[in-house]
Fold:
Amino acid sequence: MVKRYGFPLLMILLLTAGAPALAATPLPDIPKAIKGEQCVEDTGFMRRNHMTLLEHQRDDTVQRGIRSKKHSLKHCFTCHVVKDDDGQPVTAEDPRHFCRACHDYAAVQVDCWQCHVSTPEPSATSVKGVQP
Amino acid sequence: MSNKKAMSGNQIDRYRRRFLAQSAAIAGAATLGGGLVLTRVAHARPADQAVNSDKRWGLLIDAGKCANDCDECVKACEMEHGWGRGSSDEQHSSPEQKAQWIRKVTVRDRTTGHETSLPMMCQHCAYPPCVDVCPTGASMKRDDGIVQVDKHRCIGCRYCMMACPYKARSFIHEDLHAQKTESPRGKGTVESCNLCVNRVDRGENPACADACPEKAILFGDLKDANSEIARRLASEPSTEIRGDLRLDLGVRYQGI
Structure:
């Protein structure tokens, strides 16, 4: 018996001993929010459900004109912004971008940035009349 | 499925809100009694409340005041929504392909030779052909009468562009990078004047109406009999372009 299963048993033991090495798999380096300690919802909830919140909000905004800030994409970037060496917020084209940090890791591609701006709103975007 | 659920939830909320408002009104009237009824006048809509059909936004454009060589309204639209001169994108598109949310049109009377200049954009029909033909529900009319494209649903088939009698819609042919935060736009979707829905939801006027140096563009609620636009429409002559199509337009013109 021992003779027959000795080698596989040894292998299993060795592999189990190697488990800490598996746990050392690199995890995404999530950039910290620039202000506030608490997201609009619990962190765990946001990690699992942010896409549902955003999708719900987008339909509410476009179709029903509801523009509450809490779950809006624009509002995410008031806190979740990564600045480059010049102090300018990086866009989603930069791998350091908040969304990219996880989405690159999970290999989930999002289409938001084909249309939406991925940086915080400049203080005055709305144009009153005409600019030179 | 989840979308459907969310929609039915919204619907229920809407009924519930209406019911509560009505009960509150009845209760208010009952408490006051003596023929005194308080009415609440809504000014700016709170951000978390949906638009409703109590309002219908529209424009009254006085072509008589519109100067031939002026395009301030077009420029303001470009800056507000980041197209044309308001953007560094669309370098590879031909002039016919480039976005045109609003354009200046000059019409000439063949007999007299008299020329009239006017701004032309989405006419925000009450019965929009673009909404009728859209296969995905992307081309839509909001409850307050604003016709726009829900780009999350647009597949870029361009049926709406063919259906529109006013040539109001354009298609984005190339990748964009310099969009405005409040006006997301991207390759493969159709777009048009949305009556500056971002500004209207804040209680402001559309950019073109604010920019016109002659104040030839008047924005307002067509359903509110006391609004300036409704009063002027009731007392002065105005016309719809291609009124024979009976689309009940939200944009009406004077002096053409």
